[in-house]
Amino acid sequence: METAKAAGARRSATGLAASVLRAVAAAILAGAVLWICSGIVAPSSAWAADAEQAVQDAEIDISADGDAARMEGCDFAVEGFECSRTGSARDIDGLSYGYTYRLSGTDRVAVVNTADYAVLFIPRTVADEFGIEDEGSSQVQEIKTYLAALDENFSTGVNPLASQEEWKVLIADVEGAEGASLAVGDATFTFGREISEDRFYVTVEGPGDAFDVKSEVRPAQMDSGRLVPAEGAVIAQKGGPLEQLGEFLATMDYSPLWVTLKTCGVAIVFVFFLGLAAAYFTLRISKRAQDIFDTVFTIPMVLPPTVCGFLLLSVLGRNTAFGRFFQEIGFPLVFSWQATVIAAVVVAFPLMYRSARGAFESLDPNMLDAARTLGWSNGRIFMRLMLPLAWSSIASGTVLAFARALGEFGCTLFLAGNQLGSTRTIPIAIYFEWMNGNTEATWFWTIVLLVFSFLVILFINLWSRHTTRYRQKSSHEGRSPKPRRNGTRGGGRRRSAKGLREDGAGSADVLGEGVA
């Protein structure tokens, strides 16, 4: 009996062990199948993880300014690296090319990173020079590692190229002005396209005008660089702080500063005279009309700058009769330097207008009436009385308007665009330098604007203190900047009409000279 029970127990244990072994074998088999499938279905995911690890583990020597790199054991290096964090969907010479990036030359390897994949272009001449046969060669993987490392070093955390899972590779000749193209789904990527003379682009286009590249493809940054022999690569090392500062200032493009100063200088002339004229005009019309014009003149101050830019573009654009007229006579009002002046005038005008009007309204109307009874014309009253007495507020308004024009961004970008050396002002430079990952240039232009703003506020404070001291001094000395209303002096002796006219004119002249 016991023997039978023992035999049954042994059979149960044997069956249980067999079941466990079968389960383990099935798990191993399933794991193997999943591993094989993952390698077939998503090989790029494995490369993405390997690429990120390779960027971290590979001994890549990156230059101090982040534009060159050399890797140990690689026959070539990368120089002249450039990163464009954003492209443009605007028309070029009146034609649409989809979404475009500027490319420095057709001899550069380039990669466009999108939300779902990256498209790498290698010119055939470069591939032949360095023995790159196809997209599966080890040199292509080295190029990916180079670009991922430089991209990460150039601007960390923004669409990192090293985390991209899927790569498309194009090795082709750049055929004339049409460039080399690769179709990925509905999108066509073209590299080295010469749209205008000696200006090359990378374009991303859809099958038709209705295809929205930005929403369908979602392109991010475009990186490019030149491949050079590793032994000939120049990898600049970091120097001391003063050396780095000197090199930075020596290589800095100062055109945004000159464009900004030129724009603000011209704009403030228009703002000054238009603001004074508008303030004087509103004081001489009826109250009801005054309210309407005051609203019209002030509304740019409360509207968002982008709204002002859109409205100006709708009125002055090339699709309007007004805009076409100026385009035909060679004086375009949009996407030109003139557009930066127009935008600055529109956004700065309300500050000048409000300052001038407030100053004119604070003047004693009895004094102005007295001047009219003495035979003064309106022009003489304005130039000899109103302008000198209101000059403190007018000067402050002028400086504030200049500062507002200096910091204008939204309206200028809408109306004038971002053209280096022509319409790129300091605020626009700050935005696009930051978007392109150039943190040093962003901080430089930010500090420049902070210094300008500090000087503007300091000037206003010093000017206000100066005028306050002048008025206090006049009060202590017993002199009043306003003419006497009763026409008498000291003991109250009444003067003749002739003497009143002479004394009133003389007092006004002296007052005008003293205030000026």
Automatic annotation (TrEMBL):
Q: Where is the composition biased (Basic residues)?
A: 481-498
**Top-level division of the source organism's lineage:** Bacteria
Residue segments, region Disordered? 471-516
Sorted alphabetically, the Gene Ontology cellular component annotations on this record are: plasma membrane
Q: Which Pfam families match?
A: BPD_transp_1 (PF00528)
Kindly give the membrane topology term recorded for this protein: Multi-pass membrane protein
Subcellular localization is given as: Cell membrane
Can you give the residue ranges of the ABC transmembrane type-1 domain? 257-460
Query: What InterPro entries does the entry give?
Result: MetI-like, MetI-like_sf, ModB_ABC
Q: Which UniProt keywords apply?
A: Cell membrane, Membrane, Molybdenum, Transmembrane, Transmembrane helix, Transport
Q: Which Gene3D superfamilies match?
A: MetI-like
NCBIfam families per the UniProt record, alphabetical: modB_ABC (TIGR02141)
This protein is called Molybdate ABC transporter permease subunit
What species is this protein from?
Adlercreutzia equolifaciens subsp. celatus DSM 18785
